[in-house]
């Protein structure tokens, strides 16, 4: 082999190495660019969006009672006063309880006799309608990243609230209906729902009398002037009045006055002979038909008495007259 051929071979060999080197360099650059592109693509992002529509709230549980978070089927009133009641439950909102946690804008309610005029929109009347002020007597539970919210209304019910379980003649014409407690929930998007629970109000016949019946100072053989007793209906149904003395009027000086010497009447200015004689240990019935109170005034009637003093008695004479509310007939 000549030197020139050897030189050419080595020169070609060198060129081959150069070609290899260039090729490797290109491959490395391409790979690097690829890695850079991969890394750049891994750091890229796109915004994800969706729209959640509003879901109306629901009322999932309800109860009405004289105790917090309890339930009764019939309410017994307090004679001449008021009874505390509680209207409790749980509401749910799939958009979160924060949608229904404002007492002023999200809540309202009413406790009412079910067939009262206007229903849940009835006017305030303690005999048959109790609007529930949403910012004064409503307590809401804690709202902490939840979809449910407990609530409780408190409301005092008056002694003359309409009875609904008595079909007798002394009950109002709406007997055998019931009462409804209704909660209305409006979420922040103005979607509205409500829940109701019903209960009865039991009839209560009750009365109150004002004072001692005094006939004053008399002499034997006298008829007294007219004494009176004011009777107040402290229940929630119409009543008649029963009157009964325990014994004859016993005198601390001499003798006694028979029970029947005192007569009673519902008529002012009545004559002694027109009165009904009282009886010891036995009722007389005065057909008062005394209606229950209403929101404005109490309901009262006056019973009048006259005493005829027999001969042969002396001193201070007393007995006890018991008044009882009876079913109106």
Word description of this protein:
The protein is mainly β. The chain has helices spanning 3-42, 103-106, and strands at 58-65, 74-75, 82-92, 107-113, 129-132, 138-140, 148-158, 179-186, 192-201, 207-209, 227-233, 239-245, 249-251, 256-257, 262-265, 276-277, 284-290, 299-307, 317-318, 321-327. It has a 5-stranded mixed sheet with strand order 2-9-8-4-5. A hairpin with a 5-residue loop joins β8 (179-186) and β9. The protein is rod-shaped and about 120 Å long.
Give a nutshell description of this structure.
This protein is mainly beta and 329 residues long. Helix content is 13%, strand content 36%.
Sum up the structure in keywords.
329 residues, 5-stranded mixed sheet, 5-stranded antiparallel sheet, rod-shaped, disordered N terminus
Largest beta sheet, briefly?
5 strands, mixed
Q: How much is the average pLDDT?
A: 87
Q: Kindly estimate the percentage of residues that lie in beta strands according to DSSP.
A: 35-45%
Outline the low-pLDDT stretches. Answer: 1-12
Structural shape: rod-shaped
What's the order of the H and E elements? HEEEHEEEEEEEEEEEEEEEEE
Structural class: mainly beta
The main sheet orders its strands as: 2-9-8-4-5
Distance between the termini: 149 Å
How many helices? The count is 2
**Radius of gyration, rounded?**
45 Å
> What percent of residues adopt helix (DSSP H or I)?
10-25%
